[in-house]
Write a structure and sequence with these properties.
This protein has helices at residues 40-52, 72-86, 101-109, 131-144, 155-158, 164-173, 187-196, 211-217, 231-243, 246-262, 270-279, 295-309; strands spanning 23-27, 32-34, 37-38, 57-60, 92-95, 118-122, 149-153, 177-182, 202-205, 221-224. The protein is α/β, with parallel strands linked by helices and 310 residues long. The protein is globular. Residues 1-17 have low confidence and may be disordered.
Length: 310
């Protein structure tokens, strides 16, 4: 046990609980019948299952959704379907970002935000702006958005890291930027943000396996991939951790940890889709250039899932 029985957990201010993006968000996968066809019936069942099992909000059209390989028509249809299926049962955060600032602000101007509570906007990728460029990019997005913005730092995908000082600058200067999804894996950077951020600014874990330690440091929850498959367990772990009930949260964290790590061994969402097929939730179809996980990893996921249920 990492803390004594009389430990008073006080890193999280529960006056912030009115914020719709505290707790467990799910980075929603997109089930495909085949690479050219979205399986809306499976998606409806998935949405209903994760809401019934206690998740706090849904992230639509993020990286895990494979939105990068969809047409504009598909993305609009998917957004409309998710909003209709959720039916205001939980907030929805919409993935809306890119490496062309003008294109992103134009997309915001042409988006219907009815039913959308916020934007998740990834750091610009490929062209690798410096920190001043990153700050200006997100400032323009914040000024353009009619809903709150959460910036998304995932240097393993984008090739650029949003430095802690840049995050703190945006937190201080842009009231419409309400938080950051931190997936750098750099706990020192995360702690620098948590230590110096404005009170209401959210730091959200972008790594399932780091969610428990990040919450103990003061993070507000997670945007989770594993919650597609384990919504009850992930949302319960996060709720316990946010309340300071670490004796209940920690066993759940360790129970899920082998699956949390394994689903990312050959990329996301390849791993989570394999696990969800093992569960019988969806068919394991992806769009190129993504491919299915190897047979050894598929077998490992099946073994870990059996152990998880045992």
């Amino acid at each position: 046990m990492p803390y004594p029985d009389n430990f008073q957990f006080s890193t999280f201010n529960f006056q912030l609980m009115k914020n719709p993006f505290i707790g467990t968000g799910v980075a929603l996968v997109t089930p495909f019948r085949k690479p050219a066809s979205i399986d809306f019936s499976k998606l409806e069942a998935l949405i209903n299952n994760i809401i019934a099992n206690g998740v706090d909000y849904i992230v639509a059209l993020g990286t895990t959704s494979e939105a990068a390989t969809m047409t504009d028509t598909e993305r609009h249809a998917l957004q409309d379907f998710i909003i209709e299926t959720v039916a205001a049962r939980c907030p929805i955060m919409l993935g809306l970002g890119g490496n062309n600032t003008l294109a992103v602000t134009d997309a915001i101007a042409n988006t219907n935000f009815d039913g959308i509570s916020g934007i998740l906007s990834v750091a610009p990728y490929y062209n690798k702006p410096n920190q001043r460029g990153l700050a200006q990019h997100f400032k323009q997005i914040a000024e353009s958005s009619p809903v709150p913005v959460v910036i998304y730092n995932v240097p393993g995908r984008t090739g650029v890291n949003i430095a802690a000082d840049t995050t703190l600058q945006l937190a201080e200067e842009c009231p419409n930027i309400i938080g950051i999804k931190e997936a750098s894996g750099n706990i020192a950077q995360v702690m620098q943000i948590l230590r110096n951020k404005p009170e209401k600014f959210l730091v959200i874990s972008g790594d399932d396996s780091l969610t428990y330690p990040m919450i103990t440091l003061g993070a507000a929850g997670v945007i989770s991939v594993i919650a597609n498959a384990l919504p009850k367990e992930m949302s319960s772990m996060v709720k316990y951790a946010l309340k300071g009930d670490l004796k209940k949260a920690l066993p759940l964290h360790y129970r899920m940890l082998p699956l949390m790590n394994a689903i990312f061994e050959e990329g996301n969402p390849s791993g989570i889709k394999a696990l969800m097929e093992i569960q019988g939730q969806i068919t394991n179809n992806l769009r190129m250039p993504l491919v299915k996980v190897s047979k050894p990893l598929y077998n490992k996921l099946s073994q870990y899932y059996d152990e998880f249920n045992a």
